Amino acid sequence: MIRVEKRKEPLRYQGAVAASSAVVIAFLVGCVIFAGLGVHPLTAYLAMGKGVFSSVDAFSEVLVKATPLIFTGLAVATAASMMLWNIGAEGQLVWGGICAAGTALFLFPGMDAWLVIPLVLAASALGGLVWSLIPALLKAKLKVNEILTTLLLNYVAIIYMEHLFYGPWRDPAGFGFPGTAQIPEAAHLVRFAGTRISLGFPLALLCAVFLFYLLKKSIWGYQVLVIGKEQRAARYAGFNVNGKILTVMALSGAFAGMAGMVEVCGIHYRLQTGLAVGYGYDGIIVAWLAGLNPLAVPITAILLGALFVGGEQLQSVLGLPSSISLILEGALLFGLFAGQALGGYTVTISGRSKVAS
Amino acid sequence: MIEDLIFITQISIKSSVAVLLATVGGIITERSGVLNLGIEGMMLVGALAGFAAGHFTQSPMIAVAAGTLAGGLLSLVHAFFTIALRSNQVLSGLALTILGTGLANFLGRPLIGQTGVRIRQLPIPLLSDIPVIGEVFFNQSPFAYAAYLLVPLVWFALFRTRTGLVLRAVGEDARSADAAGVNVELTRALSVFVGGLFAGLAGTYLSLSYTPGWKETMTGGQGWIAIAMIIFCTWNPLLAFFGALLFGGLTALQFFFQATSMDLIPSYILKMLPYLLTIGVLVLVSASSRHRKSASPADLGVPFYREL
Question: DSSP letter string over A68-116?
Answer without folding.
Answer: HHHHHHHHHHHHHTTT-----HHHHHHHHHHHHHHIIIIISTT--HHHH
